[in-house]
Amino acid sequence: MAKTPPLLHEIGPDGLARESPVIAYTEKIIEAEQLQLKKEMVAGSSNRAFWIGLS
Q1: How far apart are CA 20 and CA 23, in angstroms?
Q2: Can you tell me the distance from the alpha carbon of 25 to that of 27, in angstroms, rounded to the nearest whole number?
Q3: What does the radius of gyration of the chain's CA atoms come to, in whole angstroms?
Q4: What's the mean pLDDT in 10-28?
Q5: What pLDDT is attached to residue 42?
Q6: How far apart are CA 29 and CA 40, in angstroms?
Q7: Which residues contact 17 (CB under 8 A, 6 or more apart)?
């Protein structure tokens, strides 16, 4: 029978609850993707303003 993971947080040596490594990694990836999207949106806005200025 498969062992279910504990539902309690793991407590680190500093006394603070540790986050699941999978959740921490996923959040890091999501933040990086959001930052990339913001950069692309800013670059897209700059490009649009440039092309509008040419017309």
Answers
A1: 5
A2: 5
A3: 22
A4: 83
A5: 81
A6: 17
A7: 9, 10, 11
Beta bridge partners of 18: 10
First-to-last alpha carbon distance for the chain, in angstroms, is: 70
The residue type at 28 = K
**SS3 labels along 1-55:** CCCCCCCCCEECCCCCEECCHHHHHHHHHHHHHHHHHHHHHHHHHHHHHHHHHHC
Instruction: Answer yes or no: are the C-beta atoms of 36 and 28 closer than 8 Å.
Output: no
Residue 22 to residue 44: CA distance in whole angstroms: 33
pLDDT tens per residue, range 22-43: 888 999 999 999 999 988 888 7
